[in-house]
Amino acid sequence: MFLVDTHCHLDVADFDVDRELILQRCTAAGIQQIVVPAIDQPGWAKLLRLCQQHSNLYPALGLHPVYIDQHRPEDLRLLETQIAQTPPLAIGEIGLDFYIKTLDRERQLELFEAQLQIAKTADLPVLLHVRKAHDQVLVLLKKYRVRGGIAHAFNGSEQQAQQYIDLGFKLGFGGTMTYDGSKKIHQLAKTLPLESIVLETDAPDMVVEQHRGERNSPEYLLDCLTAFAELRNMSQEDVAQQTTQNARDVLQLK
Q1: pLDDT for the residue numbered 112
Q2: Domain boundaries, the chain
Q3: How confident is the model at residue 1 (pLDDT cuts 50, 70, 90)?
Q4: HEC per residue, the chain
Q5: What is the pLDDT of residues 90-115, one digit of tens each?
Q6: What is the CATH number of domain 3-251?
């Protein structure tokens, strides 16, 4: 099998001790490509070095909405400069998080719009973080018309899913599928078009049920694959083939 983890923060310190071993195990398991989205500007250099050292790692650069208080005004200019010097696979992780009430919504909206404009100008897809803000995100995507991307950890409605699909987006599904109580996610995974779904881990976060309480890892993408195949009553090989093609199509992976 050939699998793509479309969202994994492999650059963070959680993996500093055993990153190389994890990558070896991923390759042995068929996880051949991993997309690594940025969180903040100070982390870009380490992320880019890591991806330069490993041909199967692909960088996305952006400013995460959850860390809105840490981002500086000049970070947007630096983002434009950086992607001109070292074009990433995508702009991300960007978006809106209205679930955390203490985050400044207006600043999030300004930052998100600015990054959508950067993505549009650079003709790059985007990796979206969206919590309790799908309608607001969709309005802005219709305004800026970026070159598609992935709605990471999708948990919206079927109607919202169709709007993302119509805008050229794929929908990311990961560890949440492995939990018995995730009824909404299970229903979405069963009913949304297979051609619009990609797999992800979001490691080190959103760990699968089989490793509850531990650090998540990209090698657990196999558990996500198993869960999804069971929900769809499909073979793992067929799911792997289609979701890999979906990821390659939307991100222009080779």
Answers
A1: 98
A2: 3-251
A3: confident
A4: CCEEECCCCCCCHHHCCCHHHHHHHHHHHCEEEEEEECCCHHHHHHHHHHHHHCCCEEEEECCCHHHCCCCCCHHHHHHHHHHHHCCCCEEEEEEEECCCCCCCHHHHHHHHHHHHHHHHHHCCCEEEEEECCHHHHHHHHHHHCCCCEEEECCCCCHHHHHHHHHCCEEEEECHHHHCCCCHHHHHHHHHCCHHHEEECCCCCCCCCHHHCCCCCCHHHHHHHHHHHHHHHCCCHHHHHHHHHHHHHHHHCCC
A5: 999 999 999 999 999 999 999 999 99
A6: 3.20.20.140
